[in-house]
Write a structure and sequence with these properties.
CATH topology: Rossmann fold
Keywords: Amino-acid transport, ATP-binding, Cell membrane, Membrane, Nucleotide-binding, Translocase, Transport
Distance between the termini: 54 Å
Strand content: 15-25%
Number of strands: 10
Largest sheet: 6 strands, mixed
GO molecular function: ATP binding
Pfam families: ABC_tran (PF00005)
Radius of gyration: 19 Å
CATH architecture: 3-Layer(aba) Sandwich
Bound molecules: adenosine-5'-triphosphate
Number of domains: 1
Number of helices: 8
Structural class: alpha/beta
Organism: Sporosarcina highlanderae
Order of helices and strands: EEEHEEHEHHHEHEHEEH
Strand order of the largest sheet: 6-7-8-3-9-10
InterPro entries: AAA+_ATPase, ABC_transporter-like_ATP-bd, ABC_transporter-like_CS, MetN_ABC_transporter-like, P-loop_NTPase
Length: about 250
């Protein structure tokens, strides 16, 4: 579905992505992991041409994105949604307006917009928050709004750049649950960049490991599932001491 053919990206003299080829399969949750500076986010941003590669091609569903221009490119990019570590919501717009704006930009039929916004907010469990502003929401709620916004135009692929890195462990698990639901019930292919091994192991089917701007390897894995801790202090102590090599102070 997404195929990168020998893509490269330089920032000045620095080679951030070096002739990378990679396939993301239809319907999978594909992780990209690696050390800080390995080029993960740059590679993800190349997939929807937020970063334009100096060399190589990006192919989506048999169409070469890097060779498209104007209306065709805009149309093709509608099939790719994206979410970010810091949510990127518009501060002076309500939850409803944040989702509606992506429909407006995509020229979604005006009369169907309200229904579509509410459908997306329901999907992420935030329909009651439609009139709130981002500053009135928790980090997890902000990321849910960002997911609703990314889903509004019915994308086939959702690109996720460190989607849980600003969140606590329980909220991380909740957001991973939402992403899993996006994949399973809507059939959306997901690519998720994270430096957190637990995040990648919990939901991904295939994982690409990057190092120094190159793909080191791509492996298939069995997702371990999402473990939600409750906020009971007893369960925190149990987690901390379960390996038996620590005692009570
Ligand atoms: N716009 C830019 N201008 C200059 N250098 C950049 C730019 N974007 C990224 N880089 C550099 O390219 C390299 C790869 O960055 P990238 O964000 O892709 O890495 P990453 O693996 O996602 O790392 P991290 O986990 O720290 O975000 C880094 O050394 C970074 O400093």
């Amino acid at each position: 579905m997404i195929i990168l053919h020998n893509v490269s990206k330089n920032f000045g003299q620095f080679k951030a992505v070096k002739s990378v080829s990679l396939s993301v399969h239809n319907g999978e949750i594909h992780g990209i992991i690696g050390a800080s500076g390995a080029g993960k986010s740059t590679l993800l941003r190349i997939m929807n041409l937020l970063e334009i590669p100096e060399a190589g091609d990006v192919e989506i569903n048999g169409k070469t994105l890097t060779k498209m221009r104007g209306k065709d490119l805009r149309q093709a990019r509608k099939s790719i949604g994206m979410i970010f570590q810091h949510f990127n919501l518009v501060a002076n717009k309500t939850v409803y307006e944040n989702v509606a704006v992506s429909l407006k930009l995509a020229r979604f039929p005006r009369r169907q917009r309200k229904g579509r916004v509410m459908e997306c907010l329901q999907f992420v469990g935030l329909e009651r928050f439609q009139d709130k502003y981002p500053a009135q929401l928790s980090g997890g709620q902000k990321q849910r709004v960002a997911i609703a916004r990314a889903l509004a135009n019915n994308p086939q692929v959702l690109l996720c750049d460190e989607p849980t890195s600003s969140l606590d462990p329980n909220t991380t698990a909740e957001i991973l649950g939402v992403l899993e639901n996006v994949n399973k019930s809507l059939g959306v292919t997901i690519v998720i960049v994270s430096h957190e091994m637990d995040v990648i192991r919990s939901i991904c089917n295939r994982v690409t490991v990057m190092a120094d701007g190159e793909v080191y390897d791509t492996v298939s894995i069995e997702p371990k599932g999402i473990h939600i801790l409750d906020n009971n202090p007893k369960s925190f102590v149990e987690q901390l001491t379960k390996d038996g090599d620590v005692g009570h102070a």
